Fold this sequence. Notes:
It is a single chain. By secondary structure, the protein is mainly beta. The protein has one domain. Helix content is 15%, strand content 40%. The protein contains two helices and eleven strands. It has helices at residues 2-16, 87-94; strands at residues 24-31, 37-42, 48-56, 61-68, 77-78, 84-85, 98-102, 106-112, 119-120, 137-138, 145-155. The strands form four sheets. It has a four-stranded antiparallel beta sheet, with no helix packed on it. A three-stranded antiparallel beta sheet has the order 7-8-9, with no helix packed on it. A hairpin with a 3-residue loop joins strand 7 (98-102) and strand 8 (106-112). The longest helix is centred in the first third of the chain and has 15 residues, at 2-16. It starts with a helix and ends with a strand. It binds zinc ion (2 copies).
Amino acid sequence: MKGLIFFVLLINFIFLCPNLVYAGMGYHLKCDNCQAEEDLLFGIGMVSKVVANGYCYNCKKYVSITHGTAKDEKGLYVNYDGSTNTQEQIEAMEKPLGYVYQPALGKIALYPCPICGQPFIPIKEEGFGTYENPTKMYCPICNKKALQGRGGILWD
Length: 156
Ligand SMILES: [Zn+2]
Ligand SMILES: [Zn+2]
């Protein structure tokens, strides 16, 4: 019985301690031409969900739509960075502006930039290739095919 209690406590500890269990994967993006670097997070973590990542030409920066997945005592969803959202805000965030067809990638959702509201096309995780053999992508900053994303960043 003592062993079982210890086991249950251990399991609780593992699941409640976000530093030990990660569910989201992050990628480090680096351009070999202009040397621009950025970390992008993907997936659903312990407390947050990434809806989409992309580059906003209007804001001239990488942007990300993320929100919390668990409510606080006020009924707000708390994101991993401490920001909070209502249920309505989350529904609005997850709703694409529309869809476009892109020959190399197929159907792609367009999301509004969380800063300026202009549409951006999400960067797809599948496009990165493998860790040993990352795919070269176009860099949104210098527009050269010199951008690589490497996985391995565990978050949330
Ligand atoms: Zn570049
Ligand atoms: Zn923007």
